Amino acid sequence: MASELSYPKSKINKVNRLGERGNYECKAVHEIIAGSPVVHVSFNPGSLEDYPVILPMIGKLGSFENPSADLTEPLDLYLHGYVSSRIMNTARKSANGEPQQPMKVCVCATKVDGLVLSLTPNSHSMNYRSSIVFGTVELVTEPDEKLYAMKLITNGVIPGRYDDTRVPPDGAEMQSTQILRVTIDHASAKIRTGEPGDYEKDLKREDVLNKTWTGIIPMYQAYGEPQESSYNRVKPVPEYIQNYVKETGETEKQYALTAISKPSAGKA
């Protein structure tokens, strides 16, 4: 069996604390981002006097050059937003040579799978999956790639949704929406699973063991029953929406429960 493609480990993406939990495989990094409804994008707005900026955004992975590529392969990260938002203006200035260096971003996605309750405050933790990618930004200006990214992002919210809407976007919508392509230069994931990691000295104390409940409270993303809008005329709820709500919720729940029984690397 061929080995999984991975991001090279470097001083930029190396997981230092509890490094044994680090994972650099494309699949591990990409699955966390793909399963996160929102990613957080940080960037430097340009002036040394400005605070760093971090924005919650919808981001989806794909490859315009290789549309059949899956999560095990190198992919770009597409972000969309209003054409005159701060991040879009900063990217535009960078593209025009202000500043000279290409705009770089750091993007983070985190999923919490459980609250880990231990015998001592310092040993409390969470079961989690997190990905961080470091990349270089380019404005998407080619119409076909822009439409590809808009479809990718829409279907990333609910698979199959794009073709069930009024498409393609009209001229005004195309002009008011800007797409950024993030070429991923470095990336890593960090994952915790398992039970609490209490110290041996506490596991020998009967007074503490008899006083404190320990265990895991599973956490997972769940979806409620779809609620129609005030002007909806389509009944019943389309099957692809119903299936997504049911199947995604069950998958998230199953992972959170399975993660409890997986040994975790390192304490806490």
Explain how this protein is built.
- There is one protein chain.
- By secondary structure, the chain is α+β, with helices and mostly antiparallel strands.
- The protein has one domain: Electron Transport, Fmn-binding Protein, Chain A (Pnp Oxidase, Chain A, Roll).
- Helix content is 26%, strand content 27%.
- The protein is built from seven helices and nine strands.
- The chain has helices at residues 26-34, 86-95, 143-157, 171-176, 200-203, 206-209, 239-260; strands at 22-23, 39-43, 53-57, 59-62, 76-82, 104-117, 125-139, 177-192, 215-218.
- Strands 1, 2, 3, 4, 5, 6, 7, 8 and 9 form a nine-stranded antiparallel sheet that branches.
- The mean pLDDT is 93.
In short:
With 268 residues, this protein is of the alpha+beta class. The protein has seven helices and nine strands; from the N terminus they run βαββββαββααβααβα.
Keywords for this entry:
268 residues, alpha+beta, Pnp Oxidase, Chain A, nine-stranded antiparallel β-sheet, 7 helices
In terms of structural class, how would the helical and strand content be classed?
Answer: alpha+beta
Helix coverage percent of residues?
Answer: 25-40%
Q: Specify the biggest β-sheet.
A: 9 strands, antiparallel
Count of all domains:
1
Order of helices and strands: EHEEEEHEEHHEHHEH
CATH topology: Pnp Oxidase, Chain A
CA-based shape: globular
Radius of gyration, in angstroms, nearest whole number: 22 Å
How much strand? Answer: 25-35%
The end-to-end distance, rounded to whole angstroms, is 34 Å
> Tally of extended strands?
9
CATH superfamily: Electron Transport, Fmn-binding Protein, Chain A
CATH class: Mainly Beta
**Low-confidence blocks of residues:** none
Mean pLDDT over the residues: 93
Count of separate DSSP helical elements: 7
CATH architectural arrangement:
Roll
